[in-house]
Design the sequence.
């Protein structure tokens, strides 16, 4: 059993044919109430579109103003009237223990949406993500997005996206 999941992880794959498709996918994800409780990890090479996806998700959730990459700050918090969001980027970590030293355990134990880019740099410290997103470059504009639900909450999110999402992101 995987942290509240009594089955193998659920996996769906989407083709995001351009940035507009990424924006539509992020908008669909933002409509799901449980996303506000989730931990989502994003994986992919440099330039795969992880931060772009996060920006579209945060905009869809109501974040105003500049949304910057937390590459140098490691975490960027966003406070909305009914939601706290933490956007992490562990790219610069050289040792997973930096996660513990930074005090992120308390953030992950608190309510709100947590999104982490480069979670493998904090391997063994970050909890199991509810939803793992793998972005792979197909060409200049297109990305393949593999979504893996790893917990019950992740399965609920993935199932909530449904066929409507599949129809809005394709070519």
Sequence:
């Amino acid at each position: 059993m995987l942290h509240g999941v009594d089955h193998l992880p659920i996996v769906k794959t989407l083709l995001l044919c351009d940035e507009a498709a990424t924006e539509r996918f992020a908008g669909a994800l933002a409509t799901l109430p449980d996303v506000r409780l989730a931990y989502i990890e994003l994986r992919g090479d440099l330039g795969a579109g992880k931060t772009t996806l996060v920006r579209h998700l945060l905009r869809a959730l109501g974040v105003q103003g500049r949304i910057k990459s937390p590459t140098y700050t490691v975490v960027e918090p966003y406070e909305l009237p009914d939601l706290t969001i933490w956007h992490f980027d562990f790219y610069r970590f050289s040792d997973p223990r930096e996660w513990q030293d930074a005090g992120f355990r308390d953030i992950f134990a608190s309510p709100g949406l947590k999104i982490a880019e480069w979670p493998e740099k904090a391997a063994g410290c970050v909890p199991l993500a509810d939803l793992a997103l793998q972005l792979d470059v197909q060409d200049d504009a297109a990305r393949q997005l593999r979504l893996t639900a790893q917990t019950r909450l992740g399965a609920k999110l993935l199932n909530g996206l449904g066929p409507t999402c599949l129809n809005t992101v394709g070519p």
Q: What stands out?
A: The chain has a mean pLDDT of 86. The helical segments are 19-30, 50-61, 97-101, 104-109, 152-169. The radius of gyration is 15 Å.
